[in-house]
Amino acid sequence: MATLPENFWGWVLFVIRQYGPLFLTGARNTLLIAITGTAAGFLIGLLVAIVRTIPLKPSTPLTVRGLVRFAQFLLTVYIEVFRGTPMIVQAMVLYYGSSQLLGWDLSAILAGILIVSINTGAYMAEIIRGGIDSIDRGQTEAAQAIGMNHIKTMVYVILPQAIRNILPATGNELVVNIKDTSVLNVISVTELFFMSKSAAGTYMRYFEVFFVTSVIYLILTFTVTRLLRLLEKKLDGPDNYTIMGSQTTPDGMIHVHHGDGNLAIRGKWGGQA
Amino acid sequence: MNHAPAATPLTGDAGNIIEVVHLGKTFGTNPVLRDIDFKVQKGEVVSIIGSSGSGKSTLLRCINLLETPTSGDILHHGESILRGSHRVSDYRTHVGMVFQQFNLFNNMNVLDNCLVGQIRVLGRKPDEARQKALAYLEKVGMAQFMNAKPRQLSGGQKQRAAIARALAMEPEILLFDEPTSALDPEMVGEVLKVMRDLANSGLTMLVVTHEMQFAREVSNRVVFMDKGVIVEDDSPDVIFNAPRQERTRIFLDRILERN
């Protein structure tokens, strides 16, 4: 029989060797639920925000106005309920409620994704509404002035700008979700926290196991944060642009690097000079 | 004599691109426009002048339906755009607008600003749209900057790009809402030059402006507004040299003295 480790680092190595696959499965499920849930929540939030920002004019027909108002009211209720109760409680109510009332037999993971999506949707709806409100009114007017309707204005002009502006907040939601999926252990979702608890129980080494667990959480959140920063940079587009040839130098191209003030001149003109 | 019942849409002279009939607009209880009547015919360049708060920008915004008039009517080729089945977004493709604050789409470069309306609203093919966009960018001297984002441009460049964006839709009439008021003084000239060229090329233009020299030299007609009404509507020669109304004279004295 193998001898058990005697110090902290010994135990850390021991649990990593012993429970590596368990940690990996847990981390995979955590990431799966957090990323899917945040993405779905983002879409829910987008739809909710678009409906909640439909402009109602006195010229809109009364029935349409009534319908939109009613939808907006329901969405407000949704946001208030899911922002106003803890996700751990929502998990219990939805998981056991869906089985008891509707006879659904959801797998724990699917239930987890559902709960995180609906919960995130409520937060994202408000974040996206804020993003839409933050875009200058002139952008909407200019879009309308070239004949765009509400949907086209949103899709081509407002949302691309609003989504770029709310990316940092969306990143926050993802990071929060990676950490908060841990509450799903109450409905036996095999995410990282649940797996860690099982691992810790066998040898009663809670400190060492959860030390490893926190390192894994940190790696997950840190990686995700960096990736989102890269995405932000990419969406901003290049800082430089190219001035195309003029009449005097038809093939001339001047690359203007915004910020550093450098000019790089290329093409016929630059070549011969 | 009885007037026609209100339900019958007004019909006017189809030769007028825009005809404004008894237009009124109130914000809350505050009347900003009262009983405005005027028209713009094809090929005309009309300048609207007046002090701040006289309602001239509101009038322009009403014509493009960015503000909803409270009373009266606006006719496009003799047909009401406020009543009946007139599609607002259709109408707006015929009436271009240039804003004081440029309002270029910040998420697109200069070329895409000129393409998006052509492709997504008018349904033009990308090749055709690109050709037109480049032609109009060339016209305003911005073709070189087609790859630049709005944040990389000066105010004058932004406004010229915004004019190209409006022109690319090939509207029947272009509305200018104080197009040089947000510009640094040294950039006003480049935008006014573009507008002069457009006027000379026969484009129908309705310009709200504080540039008296432009109004005087380029317009066919000058409209002077004060406190929400049109005080005088006449040729630039009459307005600037022999105004019929006392209020016009006082306004011009004040403005021209300052210069």
Task: Note down, in words, how this protein is organized.
Chain A has 273 residues and is mainly alpha-helical. In chain A, 72% of the residues lie in helices and 5% in strands. Chain A contains 9 helices and 3 strands, in the order ααααααααβββα. Chain A has helices spanning 8-52, 62-83, 87-101, 108-133, 137-145, 150-180, 192-203, 206-236, 267-272, and strands at residues 240-243, 253-257, 263-266. In chain B, strands 6-7-8-3-9-10 form a 6-stranded mixed sheet, with helices on both faces. Chain B is α/β, with parallel strands linked by helices. In chain B, α3 (110-120) packs parallel to α5 (155-168) and α4 (126-139) crosses α5 (155-168). Chain A binds chain B through residues 57-59, 136, 138-139, 141-149, 152, 156-157, 160-161, 164, 237, 241-246, 256, 258, and chain B through 64, 66, 68, 89-90, 92-93, 96-97, 99, 101-107, 109, 116-117, 120-122, 143-149, 152, 162, 165-166, 169.
Which descriptors apply to this entry?
heterodimer; A: 273 residues; mainly alpha; 3-stranded antiparallel β-sheet; 9 helices; 72% helix; B: 259 residues; alpha/beta; 6-stranded mixed β-sheet; 4-stranded antiparallel β-sheet; disordered N terminus
Low-pLDDT segments of chain A: 266-273
Distance between the termini of chain B: 50 Å
The structural class of chain A is mainly alpha
Name the helix and strand elements of chain B from N-terminus to C-terminus, one letter apiece. EEEHEEHEHHHEHEHEEHH
Largest interface, chains and sizes: A-B, 30 and 35 residues
Element-level helix/strand string of chain A: HHHHHHHHEEEH
Query: What Rg of chain A, in angstroms, do the CA atoms define?
Result: 26 Å
